[in-house]
């Protein structure tokens, strides 16, 4: 029971990787705070957890960053201490640069970056006061390189790495740890829910996404990485090799990405 008597707060917990993380952390004994916009979906996840009485629901919308301090205070009325915040909430994109409205770019940054930063900043004083706490951030391989139809999504994920690398270095001596999670293809509805250039739902499943690892497998790897307090973890199949190609053979990766059907 790696997280017995620990409290783990998960955003984006109503479906996909976030939902599976709820089950995986619960199996390891964690008390849970689950957040997402859809309270009905959160109630369904809670009901499937091994011990629903150890699960608290706190609906929130990452677009409303000014509400994050109040959400943290609400969370701390449910539990005396929060040990891990899993910043998992987010949304993806499927559109070329010239086809993407600026409003869509702003929305991608508001949800994937600014909302996450606001919640993190609101909880950080609690971690510092306890001289203990861990931020786990669901980034993406797109946080390390980019690909066609993902410019806004990749931009937001790149920004997360810059922010949390800085936070890690500033507050390490205060007992604050940061784990960056970089999944590749995971078989979830992320493609269907992605934003088109106009801001509508993409509504289609990518072939590579459909062939990715399961959300359950991804969640289990995230729990292990969290327990070991890894700084950065790459999760997926052969696509994670692109990380090393970007580092050592960037021109080769660029050629490969241009030819791969990634939409």
Strand content: 5-15%
Largest sheet features:
7 strands, parallel
User: What's the CATH topology name?
Assistant: Rossmann fold
**CATH architecture term:** 3-Layer(aba) Sandwich
The number of strands is 9
Helix content: 40-55%
Instruction: Tell me the structural class.
Output: alpha/beta
What is the total number of structural domains?
Answer: 1
Shape: globular
Alpha-carbon distance between the termini?
40 Å
Give an account of the 3D structure.
The chain has 263 residues and is an alpha/beta fold. The protein has one domain (7-259): Rossmann fold, CATH 3.40.50. It is built from nine helices and nine strands. A seven-stranded parallel beta sheet has the order 3-2-1-4-5-6-9, with helices on both faces. Strand 2, helix 2 (39-48) and strand 3 form a beta-alpha-beta unit. Helix 1 packs across helix 7, helix 3 (68-78) crosses helix 4 (102-130) and helix 4 packs parallel to helix 5 (151-171). The longest helix has 29 residues, at 102-130. The termini are far apart. The mean pLDDT is 95.
Give the SSE map.
Layout: E1 7-11, H1 16-27, E2 31-35, H2 39-48, E3 55-57, H3 68-78, E4 84-87, H4 102-130, E5 133-138, H5 151-171, E6 176-183, E7 186-187, H6 207-210, E8 213-214, H7 215-227, E9 232-235, H8 241-248, H9 250-259
Parallel strand pairs: 1-2, 1-4, 2-3, 4-5, 5-6, 6-9, 7-8
Summarize the structure.
Helices cover 45% and strands 15% of the residues. The protein has 9 helices and 9 strands.
Provide the descriptors you would attach to this structure in a database record.
single chain, 263 residues, alpha/beta, Rossmann fold, two-stranded parallel ribbon, 9 helices, globular
């Amino acid at each position: 029971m790696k997280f017995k008597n620990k409290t783990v707060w998960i955003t984006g917990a109503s479906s996909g990787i976030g939902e599976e993380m709820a089950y995986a952390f619960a199996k390891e004994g964690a008390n849970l705070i689950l957040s997402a916009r859809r309270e009905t979906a959160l109630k369904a996840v809670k009901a499937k957890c091994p011990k629903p009485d150890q699960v608290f629901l706190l609906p929130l919308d990452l677009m409303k960053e000014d509400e994050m301090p109040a959400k943290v205070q609400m969370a701390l009325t449910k539990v005396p201490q929060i040990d891990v915040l899993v910043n998992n909430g987010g949304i993806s994109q499927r559109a070329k640069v010239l086809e993407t409205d600026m409003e869509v770019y702003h929305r991608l940054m508001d949800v994937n970056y600014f909302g996450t930063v606001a919640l993190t900043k609101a909880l950080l004083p609690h971690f510092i006061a306890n001289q203990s706490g861990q931020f786990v951030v669901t980034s993406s391989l797109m946080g390390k390189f980019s690909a066609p139809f993902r410019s806004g999504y990749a931009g937001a994920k790149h920004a997360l790495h810059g922010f949390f690398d800085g936070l890690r270095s500033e507050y390490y001596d205060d007992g604050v740890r940061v784990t960056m999670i970089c999944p590749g293809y995971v078989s979830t509805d992320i493609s269907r829910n992605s934003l088109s250039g106009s801001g509508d739902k993409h509504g289609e499943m990518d072939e590579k996404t459909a062939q990715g690892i399961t959300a359950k497998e991804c969640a289990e790897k995230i729990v292990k990485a969290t327990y070991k307090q890894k700084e950065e973890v790459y999760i997926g199949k052969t696509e994670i090799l692109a990380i090393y190609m970007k580092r050592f053979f960037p021109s080769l990766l660029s050629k490969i990405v241009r030819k791969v059907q990634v939409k």
